[in-house]
Amino acid sequence: MATVFHSVSTHVLEINGVEQSADHRTYTFIDNDFPELLPLDLPDVLLTVEETRHYGISGLDDREEWASSAAYGFGYLRLGEEKRRFALSMWHQLHCLRTIRLAMEGHHDTGMRGHMQHCLTYLRQMILCHPDLTLEPADMLTRNYEIKRVGATHVCKDWSKVYEEMERNVNATTSRNSDRLSTAKVGN
Predict the structure, then answer these.
(1) Which of 66, 105, 110, 164 yields a CA-CA distance of 20 to 30 A from 42?
(2) Among 57, 42, 165, 37, which residue's Cα sits nearest to residue 103?
(3) Which keywords are on file for this protein (predicted)?
(4) In the predicted structure, residue 130 carries a pLDDT above the cut 90
(5) More confidently predicted of 186 and 53
(6) CA atoms of 148 and 49, how far apart (whole Å)
(7) Which residues make Cβ contacts (< 8 Å) with residue 165, sequence separation at least 6?
(8) What gap in Å lies between CA 34 and CA 40, rounded to an integer?
(9) CA 43 and chain centroid, separation
(10) Which of these, 174, 167, 161, lies nearest to 41 by C-alpha position?
(11) Domain spans of the chain?
(12) Can you tell me the distance from the alpha carbon of 92 to that of 123, in angstroms, rounded to the nearest whole number?
């Protein structure tokens, strides 16, 4: 049975677990034979940056709110006939933010320092890799964030489509029972 990825300008067809992109390149997902990017065309969306009471550091609901940013399947998807496991950088970045928040909350041990250093380096590199050129007023140090809660509007990619694709992929490539078992064993 064939599964079809459909997007606005890119079509990816998966037949027997082997994906074929619009340029007719077929990938086996064995060794280094896989695309650099997940073939998912994301439309632009506007995001106005706002201060929020959510996603804090140490409030009662903060851990649950940060955990809600994790992907279905915990950021891993399976591609190709052998259902090879891959991670998406977006989920790695969000994982790093959750790790830094946990350390700021006081949950750290000797192994956490190396993990945090990795996360800080990784986030720095990802910001440099995808620079956002939106102009923002330079009032960060004088601004009263309790009163002036809205910042600049940014043009972003629709990340909700990535969440949808992750759920679709996990459902299509894992049995319901094994997925439930692995979900129950992995905590955030």
Answers:
(1) 66
(2) 57
(3) Oxidoreductase
(4) yes
(5) 53
(6) 11
(7) 5, 38, 40, 77
(8) 14
(9) 16
(10) 161
(11) 2-185
(12) 9
